[in-house]
Each structure stands twice: as structure tokens, then as C-alpha cells.
Amino acid sequence: MLKEFKEFAARGNVMDLAIGVIIGGAFGKIVNSVVNDLMMPVLGLVLGKVDFTNLFVKLGEGTFATLADAKKAGVPVFAYGLFINSVIEFLIVAFAIFLMVKQVNRLRKPEPAPAPPPTKACPFCTTAIPAAATRCPQCTSQL
What we know:
Layout: H1 2-10, H2 12-46, E1 57-58, H3 67-72, E2 77-78, H4 80-107, E3 119-121, E4 128-130
Antiparallel strand pairs: 1-2, 3-4
């Protein structure tokens, strides 16, 4: 069983997946910072000084100025502002991945198309036939 596990783990796809997960985790932290620390404050300012993280509807009793205060008091809340942050974060990640894949595909050299086999026209029926043919497969003429 240990031998099978070594073979499985040593496959290229498993290693590629592991590297992708690690890089994806690090990339996710960067995107979180871009969204929460750079974009959301600017978007909130443009929309009239709105802080999306504090947009919520309380489902219990009491008055709370922030989402953190409501959660600290143990009141159930419908935190739609955090959902808006998550949606914007997802869109940014999806767009960034799209741009990366597009650039990687652009950098890859396209494989040349295989050259078509050389042909010649039959002098009797004008059908395209292989250049090395000695008899036409259509009209059976000797070439």
C-alpha cells in the first residue's frame, strides 16, 4: 500500500494540483487584501460613504451600530454586506484568473499543423491522388 501511495503522489498531476492549491491560497490572501483594503473603501466612498461590512439586518432585539457589536451580543443577523464583499471578491478572483490563463495561452506557441501529404492530379480524370501513386484509384489509369 505504501508503494502504491508513493506512485500516486509522484505522478505529475498530483504535484501540479498541490502547487496550484498552495499558490491559490496565497493568491486568495492577496485578493482579499485588494478587495477589503483597497477597493471596498473606495467603492463605499463613491456610493456615499457606505461600509459594506456593516450592512446587516438584525433578526433579534436591540440596537447595534456595527455588525461586530451585534455578533458580540449574540443577536442573529442577516449580514448582506459581507455577502456583497464576497461576491465582489469572487468576481475579482475570476477576472484575475481569466487574465492569467489568457496570458499563458498567448505565450504558448501553437503547434504547427501537420503538412498535408503531397498530391498530384490524375491526367485522365483530374482527381487528386498521392504523388507516389502509379495507378489512379478513381479511373484506374496507369500513370
